[in-house]
Amino acid sequence: xxxxxxxxxxxxxxxxxxxxxxxxxxxxxxxxxxxxxxxxxxxxxxxxxxxxxxxxxxxxxxxxxxxxxxxxxxxxxxxxxxxxxxxxxxxxxxxxxxxxxxxxxxxxxxxxxxxxxxxxxxxxxxxxxxxxxxxxxxxxxxxxxxxxxxxxxxxxxxxxxxxxxxxxxxxxxxxxxxxxxxxxxxxxxxxxxxxxxxxxxxxxxxxxxxxxxxxxxxxxxxxxxxxxxxxxxxxxxxxxxxxxxxxxxxxxxxxxxxxxxxxxxxxxxxxxxxxxxxxxxxxxxxxxxxxxxxxxxxxxxxxxxxxxxxxxxxxxxxxxxxxxxxxxxxxxxxxxxxxxxxxxxxxxxxxxxxxxxxxxxxxxxxxxxxxxxxxxxxxxxxxxxxxxxxxxxxxxxxxxxxxxxxxxxxxxxxxxxxxxxxxxxxxxxxxxxxxxxxxxxxxxxxxxxxxxxxxxxxxxxxxxxxxxxxxxxxxxxxxxxxxxxxxxxxxxxxxxxxxxxxxxxxxxxxxxxxxxxxxxxxxx
Length: 524
Known about the structure:
Blueprint: E1 2-3, E2 33-45, E3 50-61, E4 70-73, H1 75-86, E5 95-102, E6 105-106, E7 109-110, E8 117-120, E9 129-139, E10 148-152, E11 155-160, E12 166-167, E13 169-171, E14 174-176, E15 192-199, E16 205-208, E17 211-215, E18 218-226, E19 231-234, E20 237-244, E21 247-254, H2 259-280, E22 288-294, E23 300-305, E24 308-312, H3 326-334, H4 344-357, H5 374-388, H6 394-402, H7 411-429, H8 452-471, H9 473-486, H10 494-504, H11 508-517
Parallel strand pairs: 2-15, 21-22, 22-24
Antiparallel strand pairs: 1-23, 2-3, 3-9, 4-8, 4-12, 5-6, 5-9, 7-8, 10-11, 11-19, 13-14, 15-18, 16-19, 17-18, 20-21, 23-24
Helix pairs in contact: 2-4, 2-6, 4-5, 5-8, 7-8, 8-9, 8-11, 9-10
């Protein structure tokens, strides 16, 4: 997810708040018990705003023990439970499990305190496999969010994610799950293959993870080697596309006064991001990426899924403007020499580059987003701010032109900003009194005085920048490429990341930086 941040690249400097910080465990390629395939039949009722779901999971037990139950997560319950407590107009949206079956036989299940968890009474011995089918009817809330619908341009847009049942991870002899976390993510799932039949009215265009084709209201989706699935559909979408680095990028957007500039800038930013991230880190593993414009709510710039990214278009949709908190407005007002400014065009380039960055860190290299959110958000914020953001690009130049600030966005100023980042990193390294700023903690336990977003986004990004400058860019990016290739389609940990960093640089300076950012009590 992209959070609206106060970190800005200025005309001659990088905002100094970026640096306001006065045992080996191998990642498992797969959980020990996993769903290798999902067969899904999904029907969208746009009159009732309701989703009927039939999800069949092929489950394999590769562990060393038999289990008496399988943990299925109906994550929609956690989402709607949160919505009911915070948004009055979501009260009518509920989710109900109709039944769970195996080979036509009805299975019993229990939920416990968290009704998102469905403990299905199905024994699975070592080496065995089974198919279970979950039938659920879920109401779609009217909410600006990654799961919800909105009225737009006299039509509707549906963001469908965090609403599909899935098998929880089984690692180290136990089922792993986390409570729903609305401000971030709680996903912790293995890579699987999704085969989906999605039914919607014929007037609706469909974007989805993987590759899809629509005929007479039926969309067939094939998403291979993906750890999550998302679908966005609207009867008001326009579509454009480009090809870059062998990848087809589809942009689903809405018509309006600013739609031409939105479409052009979004696609150009995608092209620049793919070029830079491919060169720096490695090849994108999928053939397509869908980008969808939508309304995601206050202080949210986008949301990531394998093969699909949602981009907030609040600044471009008629009669809708993105709102910032008073504190963030004040903070932005103080910075007057911004290359990129604070306008909707620069926001768009930042949002698109961030969510595309997640295709490398989260979609390809997975992590436990609840326990170690810095691994995806911190590394992706680093890609956004210090890789894409500190490289002169055509997309940033176009944003500057549209903002009438081209005189600030120059190659010379980009060079100055890079030099300043290096100077700030060196200052950090040579300060023996620098306080620790731990980033590798779970979302429910950030360091005292620091909120979760600061820890994961700003802290994780800053750690990456300082580590890069300490190691040198060549060694750092060689290490990052190896991390990417080693844990491709796997789930990595902070310890896995550090093991590869130490392979390239185990110097006293590097270990000093690690000591200031990594809490050893949370290494696993």
